[in-house]
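CORE FACILITY INTAKE
Project code: CF-77B
Contact: R.S. (postdoc)
Sample description: multi-component assembly, two entities in total
Requested service: structural model of the whole complex
Turnaround: standard
Below are the sequence entries exactly as provided by the requester. Do not edit them.
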Amino acid sequence: MAILETHDLTKRFDELVAVDRVNLSVEAGEFRSVIGPNGAGKTTLFNTITGALRASEGEVVFEGEDVTALPSYERVRRGIGRSFQITNVFGGLTALENVRLAAQSIPSREMSVGSQLFRDKNRFDDVTAHAQRVLEDVGLGEHAETKASTLAYGDQRRLEIGLVLATDPEVVLLDEPTAGMGVEETESTMALVDDVLAEQTLLLIEHDIDLVMDVSDKITVLNRGSVVRTGTPEEVASDEEVQAAYLGGGHA
Amino acid sequence: MVTGGTLLTQLLNGLSVGMVYVLLAAGLSIIFGVMDVINFAHGEFYALGAYLAVGIAAALSGVTGGFWIALVAAPLIVGVIGGLTERVTIRPLYGRNPLYHILLTFGLVLVIADGIEIIWGTQPKNFAPPALLSGPITIAGFQYSLYNYFVIAVGALIAAGTWLALTETRVGIIIRGGSQDRGMVRALGIDIDRYYTLVFAFGCVLAAFAGIVLGAKQEVALGMGNAIIIPAFVVVVLGGLGSFRGAVVGGLGIGIVQTLTQTYVPALTGVIVYLLMVGILLVKPQGLFGNPEWQNHGGEEGDLLTGGGGGILDTTTRRYLAAALVGVLALVPLGIGVTYSSYIPNSLVLNVLVWALFALSLDFVMGYAGLVSLGHVLFYGVGAYATVMMAMYVTPVFWVGLLAGVALALAVAWFVGYLSIRVSGVYFAMITLGFAQLAYNLVTKFDITGGSDGLYTGYDATYGLGIGEVGQVSLLGDIQLFYYVVLALVVGSYLVARQIMRAPFGSVLQAIRESEDRAEFLGYDTVEYKRRAFMVSGGLAGLAGGLATINSFGVGPSFLFWLKSGEVIVMTLLGGMGTLYGPMLGAGAFLGLKEILLTFGESTPGLLGEVLSQWQGILGLIFVVFVIYVPEGLVSLPETLQARFGAGGGGGGESATDATDAEVSD
């Protein structure tokens, strides 16, 4: 069953059509990669699915519910999590506090006003335990008390994934999780994604097709806002139109 | 009866006032557009221009054409002063959050205003236009003031000239482009930063010119800068920050609307401008001609620098220091009659406590949720008015009044927050300022709020404690019960605020300050969180306002004056934003220093005494230095000092903290 679908999803900025009638259907548990040259509209597609941008036309359907008009935080609460291309963690707070905030998000809706306002944030045992577990999972257990802004770049990217993971999402959208990383770091991060997010449905943006060949169930190729092809990695790699898009559409 | 003649007269009056607004707003708007600086000191450059012109004309008395020489020379001098100011004070702040420019230029307001007072004294100056321009003139059977024609004509000429310079010269095109989209201009390979000094100086020239032409029409007096700067901001915000067209349309529009309202709907005088501003911003948050992109250029903004306070003093030490401070404060009244008079605890320290609470309330939203409220005095004033009015009209029991004050402040904060929190950054600051000004003008209009005199009359308390009495329940001699009530409420408020920051709610506020986007994508409704924080903050400010009425035996419009908003921001930053206790120490440092300066000023003869008595200017100067060099405030001093003097400087850090405490408790 498809957990996330888009129907003719379109995003226009004045004259420019950044996302043009995109239809996606992602199965539960699937690892889907969205690839395409720079400027293909990948991030805009992500922003429209997660609610950072309002769709100009079309629908986003999550678990059978039309979420197109919902604000982004409501989509997160329903189970759509995302990471950012530019590292976006709470720099002034510790690594643990970062993840704790993420873990607190969903339970906080059940808390009474009194505990929300006055009860010590570290005295919610479930939240703290969950946060610590996630921090271990992404390999930052030793850095719990380190200020996020002083973490190494690769560790910040891991923390970013930890933030997404801690909200317990059904679907995770990852926007170039290995952007700016060296070869080794890239490999270990992809392994991490494959490992800690194995339960979740994944939608991953990448411009480097080689990186996602092995891990993806399906790949969607985007060019100039439209879907060129969706298929298994093998199908996509051998598609002539895809090759043309990559060779003609600029160097990735 | 509205006749064509009087209507035409009113329209022309409106145009001549509007032209002055245009000149001011054009400079403000370009300065903001190009360098993101909200220049509160613009009104002071305007005043400086007028005073300089008076000085020059006086020096040239007897010389024919003295007025004309002054009209040209004074703006040029102000331009040079403005350029220097930009170089020395504003330049170090580029790249920081625009809030710091607001704070810095607010400090400059205090410095320049007091400088003017020291040089030219407190008496208003008469600055008459030359005989050539005075008297009425009749054109086509319609008689009207020649000087107003002159203002309109010369204003239009300068505006047109500025427009031509902006559209036809290379520098102008770069500046105009920069004020629309700075990133784009940079992308074209042009170093827009080089033009900053020029732009700032030019804005000051226009302001000075405006000051001279209006000064010659009315009078040149202290406070003329204060009086014009807020309406000028309204014009800029209405027209759209960074838009020259907006400045022209907004300036003329506001001038005409103001004049017509005065004549035909006097009840709305002073209010209409702010109603318009709030209304338009709510419908069109970027103003009439503003670039909507300004809304979200957050990526370019620097962070708000909060005082960490970590480092040297560990938690236990800090807790001991705090306990010691509260202990000292509790003992202060015992010294009455021994080392000082009852004035120290019952007036000075009480005042410090009330302001500490007010500063705490601002820090709650500014330091934690990143909401820069420029109109925080609104809640303080509303709390004060509600407290006094409740006591006067409903029940004389002070506590009921205080409760009503807090409740009303909460309600107003909910209303203002509901309407304006979705608007971000600078526009939020301006909307809150607009609401506060609206309230300031409203209370002067109604008898029930005591008009411009306020409500200070005594009344009989039949039971409980009325306002006049509550401050006079003596525990022993001059030792007042009320002192301890306030101390307990202020310390209690701090503890509550601190607990909120340690709870889930407060942790989300800090997340929002760090990155609102990220917090939203963790599933938090950030707008709702900010609204609630704004309410808590408004309630605390209302409590401070209510308590303040004890000392003043009532309330008046000065409780809502915008300078108070500025002062509380100064205290917050001075102490160290985002720490809760820092701003409270800042309030103590600010008021303590003021007291010291005033005392020494009075007892020191001659010029030095006179200079010391200008406490605002000296505080402004200290504040400017703080914004530039110690943006994290007093609480960061131990750390900063240690960093500067190496590991061995720990002792120095300690003594700096002691000094801070001493300032609060003396």
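Facility notes:
- The interface with chain A takes residues 306, 496, 499-500, 502-508, 510-511, 513-515, 517-526 of chain B (CB under 8 Å).
- Residues 4-14+29-228 of chain B form one domain.
Invoice: internal transfer
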